Amino acid sequence: MSLRPTLETRKAVPTMEGAGVKLHRAFGFQDPSELDPFLLFDDFRNENPRDYQAGFPWHPHRGIETITYVLSGTVDHSDSLGNSGRLGAGDVQWMTAGSGILHQEMPKGTASGQMHGFQLWGNLPSDQKMTAPRYQDVQSRDIPEITDDDGTTVRVIVGEFWGRTGPVDGIAADPQYLDISIPAGVKKTFRIDTYRRAFAYVFEGEAAFADASRPTGVLLEKEVAGQEVNIRDMSGDRTLIRFGTGDEVTVQAGVDGVRFLLISGAPINEPVAWHGPIVMNTQAELQQAFRELRNGTFIRPAH
Q1: Is residue 282 situated within a structural domain?
Q2: What is the bridge-based pairing of β-strands 176-182 and 248-265?
Q3: Which of 61, 88, 214, 303 to pair with 133, CA 20 to 30 A apart?
Q4: Structure pTM?
């Protein structure tokens, strides 16, 4: 077994998308090889409806998959193929844009105005970029949730973990998408296949993520619930942790526990030509997509 080194720890950056939605971006529109096959990750969390109610009006996607995970509030969606629906708390939508789709997403908060969710973009390999679009809408009750003896809870959204398999299937990058909660002071190790690229995103509490060159407990600066922890490595709310190669990630929760997403996938290792929500392999393919948008042929007829 080998511990994955921590390559980078950074805070998500405030930005604005759609018609004026305030959100935090953990990564996106940077070097696409860093977290291949993943391209972008946004945390949309607000208490004020004015910060999100304008939503994400009609926009195109081609060549990628978008994964929306809602924690509180709802997201109404509709598309150019006539699909529509609503995502509620704990629900997931995995949309394979494939050859092209126009859609809109309109968030609505709780009665008190709270809205919280995430969106992840996954790349598609060249032989699947022009596949027929499809949705996988998954309700919260259909997502396996496992609780270990120490109180650690894992929701398995995609992939196999601790003997359970998430409900989303047929995804190009063979991803694993886990929502993990660890109680205060508990130290836990999670296995991730070596071939995957991996990152964690902390959104509640804080934790120390062990580094292969400096595991937790090596620099004894503070005790958390009776366990030694290197407080200088503590990662808190809205923090991205990008891991190197290995097959284990070790986490020690802080005094209030921690909740984070642990996401990994097989790299595609192909060239990326990217402009906004359209991701192809070459500039010629990208230019063709925008020509089709202009002349009204972007949406392929169903076969």
Answers
A1: no
A2: antiparallel
A3: 88
A4: 0.92
